[in-house]
Amino acid sequence: MRIVLVGPPGAGKGTQAAYLAKNLSIPHISTGDLFRANISQGTPLGKQAKAYMDAGNLVPDEVTIAMAQDRMAQPDAENGFLLDGFPRNVSQAEALDRALADDGVHLDAVLDLEVPEDEVVKRIAGRRICRKNSAHVFHESYSPPKEPGVCDACGGELYQRDDDSEATVRTRLEVYHTQTEPIIDHYKAQGLVVTISALGKVTEVTERAMAALERAGTAQQK
């Protein structure tokens, strides 16, 4: 299956992408991984992206699109892929449509993870990271430490990242609503969008997503 995963920040896209890709035996292609791989390998696209980033500028759509096209052309993506973080806007979605059409293939589904805005804020703003080891992550509501402000694993101080403040989260949500959310209407016009609730346990959301994708795949075959 060829799938695009969309949803607001805090919807659990990265977690669900990993589980879904494993269950469907297709590669998980994320924008972050594309950038890191191209920059670390010193590819021509990576050098272009790094030049923009070093100058404090956004990487142009055409560079991001070219990276995605190159990755989708790899042998492990021949039978499908799951795109996470791309396309990020309508122009990227239209470019993806053209690229797939040129290859004689098409998307099977666009999975929209739906989460109420207040829940997104609660999920992200409640995160606390250990200063000694950033791999130790807690949450004030969902997985609180035994002692407030202290890491259970190493005793390090727990803190809230600037990116996780409520004000920053709401700004990120506004960017999502204005830039990324319109791609849902773009794909609805093609009959590709399947929307599921991303509330509940991770396994419950994965089961919900797999069932929705199975229905979408069956519908595409008719």
TrEMBL record:
<feature type="domain" description="Adenylate kinase active site lid">
    <location>
        <begin position="127"/>
        <end position="163"/>
    </location>
</feature>
<keyword id="KW-0067">ATP-binding</keyword>
<feature type="binding site">
    <location>
        <position position="172"/>
    </location>
    <ligand>
        <name>AMP</name>
    </ligand>
</feature>
<keyword id="KW-0545">Nucleotide biosynthesis</keyword>
<feature type="binding site">
    <location>
        <position position="161"/>
    </location>
    <ligand>
        <name>AMP</name>
    </ligand>
</feature>
<dbReference type="InterPro" id="IPR006259">
    <property type="entry name" value="Adenyl_kin_sub"/>
</dbReference>
<dbReference type="InterPro" id="IPR036193">
    <property type="entry name" value="ADK_active_lid_dom_sf"/>
</dbReference>
<dbReference type="Pfam" id="PF05191">
    <property type="entry name" value="ADK_lid"/>
</dbReference>
<feature type="binding site">
    <location>
        <position position="31"/>
    </location>
    <ligand>
        <name>AMP</name>
    </ligand>
</feature>
<keyword id="KW-0808">Transferase</keyword>
<dbReference type="GO" id="GO:0016301">
    <property type="term" value="F:kinase activity"/>
</dbReference>
<keyword id="KW-0963">Cytoplasm</keyword>
<protein>
    <recommendedName>
        <fullName>Adenylate kinase</fullName>
        <ecNumber>2.7.4.3</ecNumber>
    </recommendedName>
</protein>
<feature type="binding site">
    <location>
        <begin position="10"/>
        <end position="15"/>
    </location>
    <ligand>
        <name>ATP</name>
    </ligand>
</feature>
<comment type="similarity">
    <text>Belongs to the adenylate kinase family.</text>
</comment>
<feature type="binding site">
    <location>
        <begin position="137"/>
        <end position="138"/>
    </location>
    <ligand>
        <name>ATP</name>
    </ligand>
</feature>
<feature type="region of interest" description="NMP">
    <location>
        <begin position="30"/>
        <end position="59"/>
    </location>
</feature>
<dbReference type="InterPro" id="IPR000850">
    <property type="entry name" value="Adenylat/UMP-CMP_kin"/>
</dbReference>
<keyword id="KW-0547">Nucleotide-binding</keyword>
<feature type="binding site">
    <location>
        <begin position="57"/>
        <end position="59"/>
    </location>
    <ligand>
        <name>AMP</name>
    </ligand>
</feature>
<keyword id="KW-0418">Kinase</keyword>
<feature type="binding site">
    <location>
        <position position="36"/>
    </location>
    <ligand>
        <name>AMP</name>
    </ligand>
</feature>
<dbReference type="InterPro" id="IPR033690">
    <property type="entry name" value="Adenylat_kinase_CS"/>
</dbReference>
<dbReference type="InterPro" id="IPR007862">
    <property type="entry name" value="Adenylate_kinase_lid-dom"/>
</dbReference>
<comment type="function">
    <text>Catalyzes the reversible transfer of the terminal phosphate group between ATP and AMP. Plays an important role in cellular energy homeostasis and in adenine nucleotide metabolism.</text>
</comment>
<comment type="subunit">
    <text>Monomer.</text>
</comment>
<dbReference type="InterPro" id="IPR027417">
    <property type="entry name" value="P-loop_NTPase"/>
</dbReference>
<dbReference type="Pfam" id="PF00406">
    <property type="entry name" value="ADK"/>
</dbReference>
<comment type="pathway">
    <text>Purine metabolism; AMP biosynthesis via salvage pathway; AMP from ADP: step 1/1.</text>
</comment>
<feature type="binding site">
    <location>
        <position position="127"/>
    </location>
    <ligand>
        <name>ATP</name>
    </ligand>
</feature>
<feature type="binding site">
    <location>
        <position position="200"/>
    </location>
    <ligand>
        <name>ATP</name>
    </ligand>
</feature>
<feature type="binding site">
    <location>
        <position position="92"/>
    </location>
    <ligand>
        <name>AMP</name>
    </ligand>
</feature>
<feature type="binding site">
    <location>
        <begin position="85"/>
        <end position="88"/>
    </location>
    <ligand>
        <name>AMP</name>
    </ligand>
</feature>
